[in-house]
Automatic annotation (TrEMBL):
Pfam families reported for this sequence: Acetyltransf_3 (PF13302)
Organism in which the protein naturally occurs: Streptomyces akebiae
Domain N-acetyltransferase: 19-174
Protein name, per record: GNAT family N-acetyltransferase
The organism's place on the tree of life at top rank: Bacteria
Length: 179
């Protein structure tokens, strides 16, 4: 499901101007729960999970798989980025492609952190899998996510109905190597 091929994980932390992208650790567990229990974060993602269920079921080190980045600001987790292959995506155009997902704590929205972190993660996957396109699916009503997708260079493949809402599938083609 998440197969990106042979990849060293956890990765060497990636540093951007303001952030660090790294593999998850036990100290991130509380923020994973906060993210996944947040109604605001899950407005366009099918709703949050109950906090007590998350407290019971969240592994000691959550999200520890290649392509699952924790985004850190000033030493504390503020969000996640997920890069995984979708072998059985419901849209044929996305099948077998690497898919980008992102979740950030509402208190850090509107600062450009998601854009900064996603650009770095796309650079990482571009180095790992040169020439591969990346896909992204999001609800069209999710304005922040749609703006982010455009900023990152995703272009529309199609719109479709699923889970009772209009969805957008975008693709980001690899940057052509310069001469
Ligand atoms: C989708 C999501 C990640 C977007 O977060 P965000 O903070 O709005 O995204 P960005 O990083 O692009 O930052 C947005 C704004 O920060 C502003 N900003 C402030 N300071 C900035 C800075 N120093 N640099 C860049 N932008 C800055 C920008 O103007 C930008 O606004 P704009 O898009 O209107 O131009 C966030 O809403 C989220 O986590 N949602 C819940 C999960 C979800 O729905 N995921 C989608 C499914 S995959």
């Amino acid at each position: 499901m998440t197969d990106l091929g042979p990849v060293a994980w956890p990765p060497v932390p990636i540093r951007t101007e303001r952030l660090v992208l790294r593999g998850s650790e036990a100290r991130d567990r509380a923020v994973f729960i906060e993210l996944h229990a947040s109604p605001e974060v899950h407005t366009y993602l099918g709703g949050p999970r109950p906090r007590d269920e998350l407290e019971r079921e969240m592994p000691a080190v959550p999200g520890r798989w290649p392509g699952s980045f924790v985004v850190e600001l000033d030493g504390a987790m503020i969000g996640r980025i997920l890069l995984r292959r979708a072998p059985e995506h419901r849209r044929p155009a996305a099948e077998g492609k690497v898919d980008l997902g992102y979740l950030f704590l509402p208190r850090v929205w509107g600062c450009g952190y998601a854009a900064e972190a996603c650009a770095a993660a796309l650079g990482w996957v571009g180095g790992l899998l040169p020439g591969e396109p990346v896909v992204l699916a999001t609800q069209t009503a999710n304005v922040g996510s749609m703006r982010l997708a455009a900023k990152l260079g995703f272009t529309e493949v199609e719109r479709f109905q699923a889970w009772g809402a209009e969805q957008w599938l975008g693709v980001r083609s690899p940057v052509a190597p310069s001469d």
